[in-house]
Inverse folding.
């Protein structure tokens, strides 16, 4: 599922605080949520949120102040971003605490890299009277992670509420242009998924369904299967906090469900040999991702194509490498990014033959580009001499 974004006109803090996320107890997750973003810190919000904090936060007020910074005619309080791990990765919550912690940590890190990208490139403030938009330099967010679906099946996901208030380069506050979030959603999702899959596979945990058993278990624990399942356990259908459902109770339930279909949720199904994160870009996939666009592409399309072609790479490396790749272009921000020709980011064939595919490590990529420029410069000098 691609990153889902919803504009929320009103936020009910109890909806997010009521779920204690007991299924993540003991595996290193922030069960009560946490504030994120430079904008949140600037307004005094940090750590775990409480109801009074969230009321102040979504009203557009600093944590310890009564001045409302949001425009009185603002119609949207926040934009909700939903990051959801693939079903096979969610199934690692069934395992021991150490295994589940690896999955949750990779998920949380991936979400963090995606949010850093969105805060740096996707956000702009809306100006009254059709004035020019200003890039937002600090966004305020609050992040909640859960491990189950409404049917109480394994479903590792995070709700990130982006406050509809941003501080621009002039220091002024304004409502966000939400179109930037939708425009950059595919790029942010690609960064998240690359880091998540790579983190699991580096730890020797299955992240992509490749066997019949894995595909079957994905189907068994899909949302539609959960809706159709009738086991008479009314208490287990309630919200985890209301029913007092613990992680141990859920693990037993999930194991019973798998065994009822003839399969086991065990290491033989979900553990693989560790696989290192990729070091080189899949140049064919990158070119295909760009050539599917129009004749001109945006920076966000480049980030998405690079992240997909480098699936499994570290999220921080993906962001830094695309900064190197786009360093010579007038990038822009938000929905109004500048366009560039695909050839500006596609290497010449002779460079690929001589130096191989481009590295995903940003420092190595910079060295690769430098060597290419040196060869091209030398070739131009030889050509000029021979004339």
């Amino acid at each position: 599922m691609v990153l889902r974004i919803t504009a929320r006109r009103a936020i009910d803090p109890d909806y997010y605080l009521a779920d204690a996320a007991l299924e993540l107890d003991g595996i290193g997750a922030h069960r009560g949520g946490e504030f994120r973003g430079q904008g949140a810190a600037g307004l005094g919000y940090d750590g775990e949120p409480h109801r009074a904090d969230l009321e102040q936060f979504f009203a557009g007020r600093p944590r310890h102040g009564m001045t409302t910074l949001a425009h009185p005619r603002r119609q949207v309080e926040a934009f909700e971003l939903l990051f959801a791990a693939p079903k096979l990765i969610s199934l690692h919550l069934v395992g021991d605490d150490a295994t589940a912690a690896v999955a949750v940590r990779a998920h949380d890190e991936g979400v963090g890299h995606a949010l850093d990208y969105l805060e740096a490139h996707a956000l702009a403030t809306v100006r009254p009277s059709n004035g020019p938009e200003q890039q937002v330099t600090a966004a305020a967010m609050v992040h909640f992670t859960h491990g189950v679906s409404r049917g109480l099946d394994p479903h590792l996901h995070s709700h990130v509420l982006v406050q509809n208030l941003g501080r621009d380069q002039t220091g002024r506050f304004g409502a966000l242009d939400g179109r930037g979030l939708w425009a950059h959603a595919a790029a942010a999702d690609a960064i998240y998924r690359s880091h998540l899959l790579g983190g699991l596979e580096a730890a020797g945990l299955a992240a992509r369904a490749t066997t019949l058993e894995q595909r079957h278990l994905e189907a068994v624990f899909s949302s539609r299967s959960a809706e159709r399942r009738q086991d008479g356990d009314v208490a287990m259908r309630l919200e985890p906090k209301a029913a007092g459902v613990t992680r141990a109770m859920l693990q037993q339930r999930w194991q019973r469900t798998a065994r009822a279909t003839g399969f086991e949720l065990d290491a033989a199904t979900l553990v693989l040999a560790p696989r290192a994160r990729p070091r080189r870009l899949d140049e064919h996939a990158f070119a295909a991702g760009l050539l599917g666009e129009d004749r001109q592409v945006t920076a966000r399309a480049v980030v998405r194509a690079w992240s997909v072609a480098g699936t499994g790479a570290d999220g921080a490396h993906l962001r830094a490498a695309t900064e190197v790749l786009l360093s010579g272009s007038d990038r822009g921000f938000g929905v109004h990014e500048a366009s560039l020709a695909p050839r500006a980011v596609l290497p010449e064939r002779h460079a690929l033959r001589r130096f191989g595919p481009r590295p995903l490590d940003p420092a190595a990529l910079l060295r690769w580009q430098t060597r290419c420029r040196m060869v091209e410069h030398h070739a131009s000098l030889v050509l000029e001499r021979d004339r």
Q: What stands out?
A: The radius of gyration is 23 Å. The chain has two domains: 4-202, 283-386. DSSP finds 16 helices and nine strands in the chain. The longest helix spans residues 97-121.
